[in-house]
Amino acid sequence: MDQLVIAGRAYGSRLIVGTGKYKDFDETRQAIDASGADMVTVAIRRMNIGQDPSQPNLLDALPPSQFTILPNTAGCFNAEDAVRTLRLARELLDGHALVKLEVLGDPTTLFPNMPETLKAAEILVKDGFQVMVYCADDPIQAKMLEDMGCAAIMPLASLIGSGMGILNPWNLRLIIDNAKVPVIVDAGVGTASDAAIAMELGCDGVLMNTAIAHAQNPVLMASAMKKAVQAGREAFQAGRMPRKLYSADPSSPTTGLIGS
């Protein structure tokens, strides 16, 4: 079976989904189920997973016994805050080590602050975390993160929540071709074709939230994303035909035609 393997653990789905921006936890659960995702990412600064016992707990809707919870540092703008947030998550999740690191550069673009990302990643890896890291689509910095021990590299396709799709496929290919750990497109996917293109390029998986949660029908979009990721993966494995500029190739044989 073709599975996604991260930090030594295999997952049946190559689609990772976020848990924010839904109207309620019931819609969140329906969309996650429709997506087929095994792993869900949770913004520790924005979502209650036990920090406030008086409020609804996301883990009641998405129990860790059924899903791999991937705590993330959304809303952190420096390494110190990101490290503190993930250490808190580890306590709340009983020693859970697999995390998603993101250190943002500014509140408008949400583009990653790479110097602070590199700093935080180094601290977290040394502290025993298995770090999946949101980063710029920079092949050199992606390799630096891999070399320091990150479990997965997660370059953005375009700005978080923009829905603009993959703007620089060439950089993604450079990262994919040089990586020995999973490469997962994170941020910018808007619809199913974006997810399929990411997988056709050779990405190991896709992470998304807004594309599903802000769709007019989130549950149906989650189902579409599941199929798109599967189709894109199969197309990558099949190997597409070569592109031929200014040249056609008939589908039917040209020999033995009537009248020839």
Can you lay out the helices and strands and say which pair or pack?
Layout: E1 4-6, E2 9-11, E3 15-18, H1 25-35, E4 39-43, H2 58-61, E5 68-72, H3 79-92, E6 98-101, H4 114-126, E7 130-135, H5 139-147, E8 152-155, H6 169-178, E9 184-186, H7 192-201, E10 205-208, H8 210-213, H9 218-238
Helix pairs in contact: 1-9, 3-4, 5-6, 7-9
Give a written overview of the molecule.
This protein has 260 residues and is of the alpha/beta class. Strand 7 (130-135), helix 5 and strand 8 form a beta-alpha-beta unit. It has helices spanning 25-35, 58-61, 79-92, 114-126, 139-147, 169-178, 192-201, 210-213, 218-238, and strands at residues 4-6, 9-11, 15-18, 39-43, 68-72, 98-101, 130-135, 152-155, 184-186, 205-208. A 5-stranded parallel sheet has the order 5-4-3-10-9. A 3-stranded parallel sheet has the order 6-7-8, with helices on one face. It has a two-stranded antiparallel sheet with strand order 1-2. The mean pLDDT is 91. The chain starts with a strand and ends in a 22-residue tail after the last helix.
